[in-house]
Amino acid sequence: MTRIALFPGSFDPFTKGHEDIVLRGLRLFDEVVIGIGNNATKKRYFPLEVMKEMIEKTFSSEPNVKVITYDDLTAHTARELGARFLLRGLRNTTDFEYENGISQVNRYLYEEIETVFLITSPSLAPISSSIIRDLHRYGQAVDNFLPYSLSELKKAEQNI
What value does the mean pLDDT of the chain take? Predict the structure, then answer.
């Protein structure tokens, strides 16, 4: 049986910390599906289609990584994909408290799902999408925190 893990998130933007979790997840699973969730109650900073394209380019040499977008409960999406694992990264205890509750609900909705937590690599722990958005919003350089360049992202935005 193929071990498929869904790595869900808004990825607004997708960071080097997220990339690290995916690459480490590939050592544990046959396939990692990066699922960009569409939350109708949140306004995205970077367009969904652009982020999907940037993530696909980041993993273009990794055939066992797929990128999807979804507009459903994560547990339902995992079941549709045949994923028996959810992959999540933890930077600190605050992340654990938040993710623990979500994992319990996902398990309630999809009994066969297991959430696997990977501790963020120490050098990447301070990185968060919200910090990167704030830095970018106020004109600060963010390329050091992203696995793609901001110029690539802007070029992709112009094409949508």
Answer: 93
The DSSP secondary structure of 84-150, one letter per residue, reads -EEEEEESSHHHHHHHHHHHHHHHHH-TT-EEEEEEPPGGGTT--HHHHHHHHHTT---GGGSSS-H
99 carries a ligand binding annotation: yes
pTM of the entire predicted model = 0.93
Q: What are phi and psi of 35, to 5 degrees?
A: -110, 110
Per-residue pLDDT tens for 87-132?
999 999 988 999 999 999 999 999 999 999 999 999 999 889 999 9
Find out whether 17 and 89 touch, Cβ atoms under 8 Å: yes
Q: Is 60 part of any known ligand binding site? A: no
